[in-house]
Amino acid sequence: MTDEITARAGREFHTFDGRVLEIFGSHPKRFHIRNMALHVTPPDRKGRRTIEIVVGSPEAPASQHTWHLSAEEWQQAQGLETLLEAVRAGIASAREHGAP
After folding, report:
1. pTM score, two decimals?
2. What does the pLDDT profile of the chain (100 residues) look like in tens digits?
3. 10 Å Cβ neighbour count for 33?
4. Taking a C-beta distance cutoff of 8 angstroms, is the pair 15, 31 a contact?
5. Which domain of life does the UniProt lineage start with (predicted)?
């Protein structure tokens, strides 16, 4: 992947370049696809979703970062779903090619 994908969700700005997910806001964060797992829940009965990033190996996770978005926030987060799908694909590709 050579193109950067960006998305805005509330006060946070997300970028993904195919290897590194960066989240800019009050507490900027960086995650490399070879050292993370990403989980996005389906909407609950009120439309809320949870985004969870687990950092570290699956056997010994180092930390966990969780965001909760209301149905309205999810709908207004232009490009976020596409960005998260690209991150998931990047993680899967890295694992197929021998990354932990």
Report:
1. 0.86
2. 458 999 998 889 999 999 999 999 888 999 999 999 999 999 999 999 999 999 987 677 788 889 999 999 999 998 999 999 999 999 999 888 775 5
3. 23
4. no
5. Bacteria
DSSP line for the chain? --S-EEEEETTEEEEE-SSEEEEESSS-EEEEGGGEEEEEPPP-TT--EEEEEEEE-SSSEEEEEEEEE-HHHHHHSTTHHHHHHHHHHHHHHHHHTT--
Cα four-point dihedral sign 80, 83, 88, 89: positive
Query: According to CATH, what is the number of the domain 5-96?
Result: 2.30.29.30
